[in-house]
Amino acid sequence: QKEVEQNSGPLSVPEGAIASLNCTYSDRGSQSFFWYRQYSGKSPELIMSIYSNGDKEDGRFTAQLNKASQYVSLLIRDSQPSDSATYLCAVNQAGTALIFGKGTTLSVSS
Amino acid sequence: DAGVIQSPRHEVTEMGQEVTLRCKPISGHNSLFWYRQTMMRGLELLIYFNNNVPIDDSGMPEDRFSAKMPNASFSTLKIQPSEPRDSAVYFCASSFGEWGDTQYFGPGTRLTVL
User: Fold this and answer.
1) Alpha-carbon gap, residue B90 to B45, rounded angstroms
2) Percent of chain B with pLDDT strictly greater than 90
3) Which of A93, A98, A102 would best serve as a mutation to test chain B binding (most B beta carbons within 10 A)?
4) For residue B43, which residues of chain A lie inside 8 Å, CB to CB?
5) Which chain B residues touch A98 with a CB distance below 8 Å?
6) Which of B29, B35, B105, B110 to probe the A interface (max A CBs under 10 A)?
7) I want to staple B79 with a disulfide (CB 3.0 to 4.6 A). Which of B2, B19, B71, B73 is the partner?
8) Nearest-by-Cβ selection for A46 from B59, B98, B102
């Protein structure tokens, strides 16, 4: 059974620090990797997608992918209280459903 | 531009009643997904439509659940009869393309079955 694992947290960081969120997946054939953010009581919204090994940066967010280790991470630099949310990792391979992790709750204290 | 629209936003019903959830995808999107989210199980895909055709319904829990997409702008998820264990938030999402493309989620329907 294909699985996506995340530490449920909560991950607590002070304002201005770097938050590091991690995700591992079981299906070696996975090709597409996504990070969604979900505020309490709201729907998931896409933050970043990554498809090849290495780093991808978008503003304060950096996604890192290592297919050999079956590992994808999200770094949030200069964390803000508004970043406090649950972050969902999602993975799939071509022609198959997205598999979501259960999410990591991030709390940024001011 | 309107995003994915879902109705109702909240539904409280009694065990045994029929529940119908509705979804209008983003115009131009040709894939539609129904998800269920609970604390215990996280976000689970129930069914996926592409060009109004059900492609994968392996996530539908049992025969009590059914989904339709009569046209490109409307889909329903029906539970009949409902049970307390069906209580969850049900999300509809749409995308332009297929599995690997960005999915845009609706606001969700919070269902409570008493």
Assistant:
1) 10
2) 80
3) A98
4) 44, 88, 100, 102
5) 45, 99, 103
6) B105
7) B19
8) B102
- Contact: B99, A46; criterion CB under 8 Å: no
> What does the pLDDT look like over A53-94, one tens digit per residue?
999 999 999 999 999 999 999 999 999 999 999 999 999 876
User: Pairing mode, if any, of strands A85-92 and A19-25?
Assistant: unpaired
pLDDT in tens, B6-20: 999 999 999 999 999
> Cβ–Cβ of A92/B48 closer than 8 Å?
no
| Structure token digits, residue A15 | 């304002």
The amino acid occupying position A20 is S
Residue appearing with tokens 């940066």: A57
Asked if A75 and A20 touch (Cβ cutoff 8 Å), the reply is yes
Peptide bond into B8 cis (omega under 30): yes
